[in-house]
Amino acid sequence: MAKELRLAVLIDADNAPRTALREVMAEVAVYGTPTVKRIYGDWTAPNMNSWKPLLLEHAITPFQQYSYTSGKNATDSAMIIDAMDVLYSGNCDGFVLVSSDSDFTRLATRLREAGMKVYGMGEKKTPKPFIVACDKFVYIESLHATEPTVPTEKCKKKTAPPADPNPLSVRDLIAQSVEDLADEDGYAYLGDVGTLLIKKQPDFDPRNYGFSKLSRFIASLGCFEIDERHNANYQGTQVFLRNRK
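Given the sequence above, the corresponding structure tokens read:
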């Protein structure tokens, strides 16, 4: 069994929705154990009072950072300095940066350079540079995603990739990832496909499309042949898929 990551959860109170804190902390538990839990902001401001019961509920330590200059975000600097202190302490294996602010882009990059796993969590307004600087980025809005009941769209025949520089659609992204990992029969293990998708696009998440599981999202597309195989060593069923011909 793989060792569970010890995570430092650092929250930017100026750029994180307090109403989603329970969902955020539940998501953190999926990736590891939060051994450091800190939140940064100016707690003398009246609008910060509603954070208090939530912080007590999740045992998150608030760190005071005064706004010394109007228009400048001192919280970012305090959080970045603390992150480097935690990094050099050697007590964590990874970081969860909760913010929608692009100012943490360089921090995420630096932490990954040091061998840390970096998860980002923020709203859909988060700038792309911060998203791609993380190993994985989760949209807070998607933590409330539910399974859709609408009929699935029929798969269109795949053509050559577009000549323009726009990114591939999610359907093509999955199809190419399956192709990258396929064996001689064209099948790829779903778990490996999911890992590769996140490497290619850190904000990829089936919940962004209303599905709680990758397997259900892929099945809804109708573009892939799905093969469930019993594995005695695995003691369960493993899912493989290949592109429809």
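The chain is about 35% helix and 20% strand. Try to locate this feature in the token string yourself.
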